[in-house]
Write a structure and sequence with these properties.
Layout: H1 4-16, H2 24-41, H3 47-55, E1 77-78, E2 97-105, E3 111-119, E4 124-131, E5 133-140, E6 146-158, E7 163-170, E8 183-186, E9 190-196, E10 201-206, E11 211-214, E12 235-236, E13 239-243, E14 249-252, E15 271-276, E16 279-284, E17 287-292, E18 305-306, E19 314-318, E20 321-325, E21 331-335, E22 341-343, E23 348-350, E24 353-355, E25 364-365, E26 368-369, E27 371-372, E28 376-381, E29 384-389, E30 395-398, E31 400-407, E32 410-415, E33 420-423, E34 429-432, E35 436-440, E36 447-451, E37 454-456, E38 462-465, E39 469-470, E40 473-474, E41 483-486, E42 490-494, E43 500-505
Helix pairs in contact: 1-2
């Protein structure tokens, strides 16, 4: 009742046209008292009576000011007017590019997943949204940089079984496998596709789609530890790691032959590491040794701990001390008291220090102790920082106090006022703001700048506006120079001229 009276009072003022200085007594007599009486008797009027009073004061909309909704223009073609649920392989696609078809929501509105489809390089839909993921495969090379394999992993979710199954195909679409695999792991040879992990069943496909080996043909498979087939992806110099059911380890080649089986040198190891630069690392009991690809020892030395070679040097422990050794097992530098010693392609890490691989002295840029970044090293100086990419001269970035990232002649820095900017080698600002980062093209090694929802070139030129980002990351990485964008009504790919090459209405999903 108490809540009803103020509402009636407000309505009374509106209905009567009274001004605020009207007599309170008149308002009470005309409106409040009758309303209170009706409330006491329960007679508050009929629905029709209430509707009639309210509708008398509806505002008439000037419909001449309204414009009809114009649906976003569809950009792109279709391989077929029918829904395309199966991929048809052909090299005429040139390059396959994923796109988001729709989202999958739970009963409470939470986002459960995303559906993906595929288009060709000219924007033709070749597969509708039947995929739950599209993953370009890559490995890390000896120089520490990613190597694209030219293979896509396509993932489907089976609602009936609640499981995911994967297939792989070439980026050109020239070949594809069936959706037969539980897991796909990139390898230097191509891709290890596991169909039954428990039974160690897997096939390795080359980059041109040929089956390099099938573990179903390995006679030794029955002796392997269950769920150990993924160890085959730890490989180098044509040998892969294996683990036996008794817990021991070994090496196997693509034909299924065990290294040193029946030979005088050990085929079974307490542990081992992948071959690199023609040398593997094995452990027998508590002793580590280095082995060549012919199964013989690389040199006649034992170590308490040993690691793989990186650029002709390796880390080994002898009598409690960590050393850097050469390919003959000779110590090059002792590191007494150091607890963590790792070798990278361009430097050595020793308990927080970054050392030169040749001199074992602290890495420096312009005579100042330096730290690594993506392309080289950087050092803080007065009124700025120095950055030096591998094989280039140092550049001075004026006004910067910290290097957050750097690639291809661009540097993401924190300035003295704690704001961020992307500078070129001449300290000119390519972009500025708090929401900046570098992103690498998923199909090649090009590096772009993301500024909010803008995709910029290395020269700061706007490539695509309206980039579709989530938590500061693009929902799909740039692909072959294209940016995946959204305008709130539609999603698709834009080219380097900020023009749609593929665009479709935004589907809220299931």
């Amino acid at each position: 009742m108490k809540k009803l009276i103020p509402l009636i009072l407000l309505l009374a003022v509106m209905l009567s046209g009274c001004k605020l200085n009207d007599s309170i007594a008149e308002i009470k007599e005309r409106f409040i008292n009758p309303a209170v009486e009706k409330a006491k008797t329960g007679n508050v009027g009929s629905a029709n009576e209430k509707t009639a009073v309210i509708s008398e004061f509806n505002i008439i909309t000037d419909r001449s000011k309204l414009t009809p909704f114009t649906a976003p223009e569809i950009v792109g073609k279709r391989l077929s007017p029918e829904y395309i649920s199966e991929f048809v392989q052909t090299s005429s696609y040139e390059k396959l590019i994923p796109f988001i078809s729709s989202w999958i929501y739970g009963t409470e509105g939470s986002l459960l997943g995303t559906k993906y489809g595929l288009i060709s390089i000219d924007g033709t839909v070749v597969l509708d949204g039947v995929l739950s993921a599209v993953n370009p495969l890559q490995i890390i090379g000896a120089d520490g940089k990613p190597i694209k394999l030219g293979i896509l992993e396509l993932v489907k979710y089976d609602a009936e079984t609640g499981t995911k199954k994967s297939a792989i195909c070439s980026e050109s679409g020239a070949w594809i496998t069936g959706f037969d695999f539980e897991k796909v792991i990139p390898m230097s040879k191509g891709a290890l596709c596991i169909s039954n992990s428990k039974d160690n069943l897997a096939k390795c496909y080359s980059r041109d789609g040929k089956v390099l080996f099938d573990t179903a043909d390995f006679q030794i498979r029955a002796a392997l530890a269950p769920d150990s087939v993924s160890d085959l992806a730890i490989e180098g110099n044509d040998f892969m790691k294996i683990k036996y059911s008794n817990g021991q380890h070994g090496y196997i080649d693509a034909t299924g032959i065990i290294l040193n089986l029946g030979a005088e040198f050990p085929a079974y190891h307490t542990d081992n590491r992948a071959f690199t630069e023609g040398i593997g690392v094995i452990c027998i009991g508590d002793s580590w040794r280095y082995m060549k690809t012919d199964g013989t020892y690389a040199f006649d030395k034992f170590f308490q701990e040993a690691h793989s070679f990186v650029g002709g040097i390796a880390v080994a422990r002898e009598e409690g001390t960590l050393y850097i050794i050469d390919t003959q097992g000779e110590p090059l530098k002792a590191f007494p008291g150091v607890t963590e010693l790792k070798i990278y392609p361009n430097y050595i890490y020793a308990d927080g220090q970054y050392l030169n691989r040749s001199t074992f002295e602290h890495m420096q840029v312009n005579g100042i102790n330096a730290a690594p970044y993506r392309d080289g090293f950087w050092a803080k100086a007065e009124n700025g920082i120095y950055a030096q990419a591998q094989g280039t001269d140092p550049v001075f970035l004026s006004g910067a106090k910290d290097l957050l990232d750097g690639s291809g002649g661009l540097f993401l820095v924190k300035l003295e006022d704690d704001s961020t900017a992307v500078l070129d080698k001449d300290s000119r600002a390519v972009a500025a703001g708090g929401d900046l980062k570098f992103v690498t093209d998923a199909a090649n090694d090009s590096v772009y700048v993301i500024s909010g929802k803008k995709l910029l070139s290395s020269e700061g030129k706007l490539l695509a506006d309206g980039l579709f980002v989530k938590d500061g990351e693009p929902v799909i990485a740039p692909f072959s120079g294209l940016g995946f964008c959204s305008d709130g009504y539609s999603v698709g790919w834009k080219n380097a001229e900020n023009k749609w090459v593929f665009r479709q209405p935004l589907d809220s999903g299931d």
